[in-house]
Amino acid sequence: MSEDKSVKMNFEVIGEDFDRAGEASAKIKRMLQHIGIPAEIIRRIAIGTYEAEINVIIHAGGGEVEAEIFPEYTKVIISDHGPGIPDINLALQEGYSTAPDYVRQMGFGAGMGLPNMVNCSDKFDIQSTVGEGTTITMEFKHNS
Amino acid sequence: MSVTGYLHSVKINKANCRGCVACVKTCPTDAIRVRNGKAEIIENRCIDCGECIRNCIYHAAVAETDKVSGLEQYEYNVVLPAPSLYAQFPADVSTEIIWQGLHALGFDEIFDVALASEYISLEIEKIVTDPNNKRKPMISSTCPAVLRLIQVKFPELIPQIVPVLPPAEASAIYIKKQLVSKLNIPEEKIGVWFISPCPSKGTNIRQSVDVLKTEITGSFSVSEVYGKILKNLGKESALEQKVTTASSYGMGWGGYGGEIRSAGLKNAIAVHGIKDVYDVLEQISLNKMPNLDYVECSACEGGCIGGALAAENRFVAETNLKQRIVKMRTSEPATRKETLETTMVCEDFPTSSKYIKKLLPRPMMQLDDDIVEAMKKFEQMEEVLRALPGLDCGACGAPSCQCLAEDIVQGKANEIDCIFKLRSSVRKLAHGMVELSKQIPIAAENDDFDLENELTNSNAGGEEDEG
User: Fold this and answer.
1) Rounded CA separation B336/B338 (Å)
2) Helix, strand or coil for residue A141?
3) DSSP-derived secondary structure letter, A60
4) What angle do CA A130, A100, A98 make, to 5 degrees?
């Protein structure tokens, strides 16, 4: 099996466009099914990508999702040129949310977005600069 | 491990098929193609939901069921009517009258599936309200078409399916055991027949996805039995058996929401119709409903009464069922618990865990067993897809350009199956021929031969002839 063999797909994510929310993760899911990745791994990739995609739509005014599938693992990179995250460690805490209390009482902004991505993936990286944007890289092993 | 060698009951009657793509376009799992002018079912993709039967105006899509004449092979025959059968008749036609009609058809004994549904409801209640459930929501297991959809499209949701017996199967297990000891005849002399509103329940008897060994002998479609019962309505019948009746809770299983009501679940939703079921499974898979306890899913709009093998229109059947339930409710105790205590009087009713097996995934989208090969094919497929018009017209016999692209890389179709591709190829060819015709061989190159003129003259000549 050649190590460098991979399939890559790119998707544009449009800010505040909820009609298309989830389209990138749905297409990535279909791609993984065609390639024959185990269903449980696909589920984790889809959940992680969906969370990230929604974040970009709500907070960043749009961005890009890139999915690259290797025989052994899948890498998903979500990047945006949004406001950036001032304190990444805080944002990674379960329950931390920028949403005000009354919004959270309505069931939104539970502060699980980033922690969910960490939990879903086998490798997680986040780079963010205030005023420049955020890039999240997730890796998912196919045989975990 | 996945399932191979799949049997199913939906078939295409080729003599009736005109090769239109109505079934191809409505199949939820893209399991049908038109080849050589006739629809063909890709067997390992079909989930027996019956959408093709519903949508074929030429009645070419049919379900194989058993014939009532099959009763002759058995010494003693039991019939299992379900609420979907009662719903074919107005609420004023009592269940006793329907049972007499069934008896006149040649059945010796009747067991009401609605009663088994009540036992299953309590099992569901227990499983779903268990605080140790790791993954939510749980998904109902009563519709075999939904189970098959999960196998092929959402195998990751298999652990969320409630592991209970289909009520008809529980009925068969119970009644067969009772009869063997009561009548003292061997098991194989007893025929147990289900009256099915849909192909998927029939298939689940032939080859069950969730039951270890079926005790049901065969199934008839509601529409086949309906007319025969109607004919016998009101006729004297010698039915002596006192049939144990279910309550309105078991009866409710015939329509959507019935399971939830019968299991007494508060934090649950009912989803019906294959497209909506697909949609909700997608949301569950994305973990967007983690605070919901239960999703009742039926592939047919309206629930079982909307089955493709039902006789009566589904709204008429829904009205019948609702009115029947209201009527039953007037003579029942106030609470669900009290009501179920009055009906659930069977001794040793079977519990599901002993009789069910684990559902296996049946993934169907994988392009190749070898992952690197599948990746190559995926890239080819995307390339082919980019060159297709994206109109999803169905003229190639596949439901969408996406499916045609997949068929092409799998060697099952050709690019020029696409009518637009064919047209552009013909056009290119025509251009090529014109270009070629302008290339005059050196030998013919002399001033006496003017090709342009030749062509113009011959055209003009043709027109004159026609005039």
Assistant:
1) 6
2) strand
3) I
4) 25
State the Cα–Cα distance between residues B56 and B52, nearest whole angstrom.
6
A34–B367: do the CB atoms touch at under 8 Å? yes
What are the pLDDT digits (tens) for B127-148? Answer: 999 988 888 999 999 999 999 9
Asked if A34 and B372 come within 8 Å (Cβ–Cβ), the reply is no
Q: Write the single-letter amino acid at B239.
A: L
Is residue B457 scored above 80 in pLDDT?
no
Q: For B156, which of A5, A39, A69 is closest by C-beta distance? A: A39
How far apart, in whole angstroms, are the C-alpha atoms of residue B190 and residue B183? 10
Tokens of B183: 């009548």
Tell me whether residues A39 and B363 touch, CB distance under 8 A: yes
Confidence of residue B444 (pLDDT cuts 50, 70, 90): low
Yes or no: domain A7-141 corresponds to CATH 3.30.565.10? yes
Tell me, which fold does domain B10-63 have in CATH? Alpha-Beta Plaits (3.30.70)
Separation CA B341–CA B362 (nearest Å) = 40
Dmax over CA atoms of chain A, in Å, equals 53
Distance CA A54, CA B113 (A): 46
CA distance B153 to chain A (A): 9
Q: Which residues pair with B39 in a beta bridge?
A: B34
- Superfamily of domain B371-466 in CATH is Electron transport complex subunit B, putative Fe-S cluster (1.10.15.40)
Beta carbons within 8 Å of B228's beta carbon, 6+ residues apart: B68, B101, B105
pLDDT band per the 50, 70, 90 thresholds, residue B450: low
Chains A, B: CB pairs < 8 Å:
60
Task: Give how far B375 is from chain A: nearest CA, Å.
Answer: 6
- B134, B153, B136: which is closest to B279 by C-alpha? B153
Q: What is the ipTM of this complex?
A: 0.87
The contact set of A with B (CB < 8 A) is: 1-2, 5-7, 9, 22, 25-26, 30-31, 33-37, 39-40, 42-43, 46-47, 50, 69, 71, 142
What average pLDDT does chain B have? 90
Contact (CB<8Å) A34/B366: yes
Q: Is the dihedral of CA B295, B300, B302, B304 positive or negative?
A: negative
| Residue type at position B149 | L
CA distance A84 to A133: 4
Domain ranges of chain B: 10-63, 68-354, 371-466
Share of chain B above pLDDT 70, in %: 92
Closest residue of chain B to A38, computed from CA coordinates: B156
CA B123 to centroid of chain Cα atoms: 25
Rounding to the nearest 10 degrees, give the CA dihedral for residues B421, B423, B425, B431. -150
- A26 to chain B: which residues are within 8 Å by CB? 282
Q: Which residues contact B151 (CB under 8 A, 6 or more apart)?
A: B3, B47, B158, B209, B359, B360, B361, B362
